[in-house]
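Office hours follow-up: a student asked to see two folded examples consecutively, so here they are.
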Amino acid sequence: MAAVHVVRRLREAGDWQREMDSILETLCGAMDCQRGILFRLRELPGQGFAQSVAAYWINPRFGGELASPTVIMQSVVNSDPLLERLAEDERQGKIFAGHTRDLEGFLRTDFEKQHIKSFLSVSVFAHGHLWGTLAVNDCVNEREWTDEEEATLHIVALAIGDAIERSLSDAHASEVIRRTMLQASLDAIIVIDETGSIIEFNPAAEKMFGYQRSDILGKDLLDTVVPEYYRKGYVSGAEYMSGRGAPMVGQRIETVTQNAAGEVFPIELTATEMRVADRRLIFGSIRDLRDKLRAEEEIGRQREKLHQNEKMAAMGSLLAGVSHELNNPLAVVVAQSTLLHEFASDPQTKVRAEKVRAAAERCGRIVKSFLSMVRLHPAAQAETDLNQVVRAALEVTAYGARSTGIIIDTDFASGPLLAMADADHVTQVAANFLINSQHALAGIGGDRLIKVRTFRSDRGNPCFSVEDNGLGVPEAIRSRIFESYFTTKPVGVGTGIGLSISKSIIERHNGNVWFEEVLPRGARFVVQLPAISAGAAAAGETPSRSSGLRHALIIDDEPDVAASLSDILELMGIKSRIVPA
């Protein structure tokens, strides 16, 4: 009955190994034995068997007296005649039964140490090969084993062999599925054992890390894919994965790794611990984050660009209204000071009138420059004097330099320095460079100087440069200074887009912009625009006006402006008529 019960359980069990301890308890209870053991045997060519314990049960009443079975690796060939004969009998499936007192040599010594009085053992075969042995021990009495007891043990051994064959077939199918999943996975998969050695490395991992599977298997994780500065203090890859205080196992974390070329890059790591045949394995699924981070960076760049555009649009609307409100009274001031200069008989009054007009015109230029810097319009290139462009940028940024004690040294090319350019956009570039120089000089002791120069290159190209005697640009980051959002300034001081925008503006003009080191310290940024062609210069000439015009119609929504303009036209001999706008 015990054999029938055990066979049924083995056939119904999803995992026969989990049932073995309980099955041995049932078997030993039915046969009145104190211990049952299932041994796993592995053939060692030329050496005998390597024997290990697959499952065992000991009667709790004798737990303190009977030693638990241990792994035995015993060479039986040419070492002990009895062991050699026993090995051959097990290969042939013969029953091994008897009393310990009848044994000799190693077996008697070993059995006496385990308090075995009588023993009964049968072979377990799977797929026609010796898999192991099933044994029961009587540790209390010497006994003669009956035919029924031998048959019971033999039936159970056959059922175990059948369960092993089924599990091996299932294991083969599972292995095929596992291998297919590893091969098809788009994520890199690395499996390490308890020593940190790599035991699995799928094709995605080969592509990501640049190692061939055959070359990396058996190597320690720590020495291959972990960056050197992360290895400090760890003994093995297993210890690294287990972590200290914040273990990686069981977590989804973002960290960095290293490929065969030594390149360090960001990854998302999901590590899982597995127990396989009493082994502790760590399964790591790895996803390269470089594309994700690049996409996030681009989204951030576009979001910041949109934000800046919205700010510039709002500022443009504000300044457009402000400039309109300022320009009208400034126009009146300019016109009236001009009239005062013309009609004044006192030289001192003329001088004062000229000063008023010059100040008002300067205010007008500043308002115009501010407005031009925030206008969002496509580049409209026309014949432009770079001298005037740079002067406009200086006027916009003059207060920042003056209030911080920075000296501005200018050197302008003689005569007009003409280029085909959008004056508003190039003014923005020059102002960006001037503001950057002011920031670079913040906190610098001694004389702080910004040199501004306009000139023609050796090939006749119109150019301008902005130079300061600040700390300069470190060599390590010079290649990145024109990248979007790259900045060395503190939070709140600049957005990292000024130089990038400046570069894109000049490139749209088919020009060049570059950085030059200034010794002993400092930085110089140079802009070069294409030389204006003869055809463009001719196209830009102002056609002559007819001198026969003697009447003008003035339309303006500001009466004071219209009246001032009418007074000036009258001085020129032109009759005018004012029509309210």
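And the second, which I mentioned at the end of office hours:
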Amino acid sequence: LKMKERDRRWSSIRAELEKNGLDGLLVVTDGELERRGSFRYVSDAYTWLQYGYVIMPVKGEPILISSKEGWIKDRRTVPLRGGWVIESQPYASVVIDVIRELNIEKGRIGIEGDFLPTPVYEELLKELPGATFVPSNIVHELKMVKSSEEIKVIESGAEMVDKAFDACIEFARPGRTWNDVTSEVCRVLHHWGAEDIGGYPMSRSTDIIKTGHTYHLYPEAQAPGGYWMQFGRFLSFGEPKKDVREAWELDVKAQAAGAEKLKAGNTGGDVMRAINEALKGSKYAGAIRGSGHAVGLDIIERPYVSLDDETVLKPGMIVAIHPVLAPHPGSFEACADMCVSTEKERRKLSRITPGVEVIGR
């Protein structure tokens, strides 16, 4: 991403700080897979199982506390232990020193991110009694809508996942193990630049694939630039059982119905209701926990595709729709696709059709 994108984000954040009467923003991550998007949004620094902080004053330059480089020029490296191991304590003293240095130790400071260690919060209150710390949702709100530059990066990520699908079709055969196939998918994703891979639904087993087996390809990869991908397709080694094919085709139908509601002005609840309507008359219903969500620098962002989510869709939101059936069909999680919400209609990012891919017919 270019510096123009950085400037756009920082300008929007500062405008929200002024609007909310805040003197600064403390953005935190512990580097866990699902808790680093807000930190990345502000700093463009990639963290992995490491604490990182950004302290952004409403006026003046932000300061980054991290072992990783990013957009922020003033970076304070964290202590090392034994010359190479990043210290495991969460650096409360460093954060406190920076807040004082920025002269906001008596101001109102928003806390943003999904994980702030309790010892750090307690130390902030003890050492900075003149400051007021309040929860903030500024970055979470801003990063829901992607800029045109972000969408281009996400489109490149979708192309990376499509290449992994192509490679899977060429590689997967009876006689290989499930781990063979999953390893090949991960290899291709990393070859094309994946920063990380979640992919919890992908098969992990040393059992041998046999005719009659099925494989659910569902990689959750973090593409170059830090944007997460969600994509789900269904492979069958030989013609699948009739009930399995019917369940998958119903899931595809439900996904298409939900995707039609991905228009500005609708809500996540509207998308979920369309999915449930498409499932009427079958033995399945949409899972209570929902059937999709927005995706970006965090693998799960708002809005959610669930009945209780009334977040209004806006142009530029990237939403992954994956109708999870209840009862669970067992052989797959869901047909998953990422779509761009627009004023009039959604635009799907993957070029791969969602039909059952039969190998060795």
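Two things to take away from it. The longest helix spans residues 148-171. Residues 3-142 form a domain with the Creatine Amidinohydrolase; Chain A, domain 1 fold (CATH 3.40.350.10).
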